[in-house]
Amino acid sequence: MNKFNIVINSKSGAQANQSIIDSIAVLQALATAGKPIGGSEISKILGLEATRANRILKTLASIGITQQTSNRKYEPGPGMHVLATQSLYASGLLRNSLAPLEKLAFYGRTVALGVLWYDSVSFLYHARPGMNSSEGIGRIGLRDATTSGIGLVLLAITSEASVRSAYEGREIPNFPQGVESLLTKLAEIRKLGYARVEVESDNPQAADKTTHTIAIPLGNPVNSAIALSGWISESETPEVVKALQKAHDEIEFNCNNSKVT
Question: Nearest-CA neighbor of 215 among 157, 152, 149?
């Protein structure tokens, strides 16, 4: 399974449309490539027939979601940026989170807001100490959920059956002993109400590559999580959790009030 595989929830009662699923996977592969990419490359990434990948890319280009470069590769088009902007505006999550996230910068650690997409985390906001808030928006692409505090705290509220379906029989980053060790960690997180995990720093200039992330879930129902990352001692954990909970409450308040017309 690659990170673009989309698993249909059989309990939803919806009949899967494979063309839509493939189109979304192609769009996601293009968005995360970081450079123009051709149909043959996308077909290898996704395991699609090259003709199908090219047909999807051409269809998306015809409505401006993608655009073709001079060397006949594809990159995000204006339509993708419109979709991204409309989506952020419609959810209101980032808009209502920015001020509370900026306050968390006081603690001198990396501040993050992310969502879970199957077995990956997408960061809406990820700002290192000293960064302007504008620099933190959309700064980092997809990460394996099991390597992220945000990913683990969101997996912890996912059903055991779904976790098994996603991870059983495959290598799990940071969990070499397999799905049972992952489920044990998720049970611990559920009991605590937050995730505290040791992760590798994403700062190439950091002297110590070992760092910690503390993350708590956000939303009702939960749809995202916020986190602080850096060197966090065990004795500091309660203070960090309290700070995150305060930010959580402010974001929830902002989201609830923005829905009032």
Answer: 149
Residue with tokens 């692409």: 141
Chain segment 95-153, per-residue pLDDT in tens: 899 999 999 999 999 999 999 988 889 899 999 998 988 899 888 878 899 999 999 99
Per-residue pLDDT of 176-227, as tens digits, reads 999 999 999 999 999 999 999 987 766 556 555 578 999 999 988 898 999 9
**Residue that the structure tokens 């995990």 belong to:** 197
What angle is formed at CA 83 by the lines to CA 77 and CA 88, rounded to 5 degrees? 135
pTM score, two decimals?
A: 0.79
In sequence order, what are the beta bridge partners of 143? Answer: 121
Angle at 175 between CA 112 and CA 170, to 5 degrees: 110
Q: Are 251 and 231 in contact (CB under 8 A)?
A: no
Could you give the 3-state DSSP secondary structure of residue 42?
helix
Is-cis flag, bond preceding 221, omega within 30? yes
Tokens representing residue 23 in the block: 């189109």
Distance CA 233, CA 231 (A): 7
Question: 180-189, long-range: CB within 8 Å, 24+ apart, which pairs?
Answer: 182/146, 182/155, 185/152, 186/152, 186/155, 186/156, 186/158, 187/156, 189/152, 189/153, 189/156
| Contact predicate 124/136, CB 8 Å | no
Could you tell me which residues come within 8 angstroms of residue 126 by beta carbon, excluding any fewer than 6 positions away?
A: 110, 111, 112, 113, 114, 136, 139, 140
Tell me the CA distances in angstroms from 181 to 38, 159, 167, 175, 194, one per residue in order: 39, 15, 11, 7, 18
Amino acid at 181: S
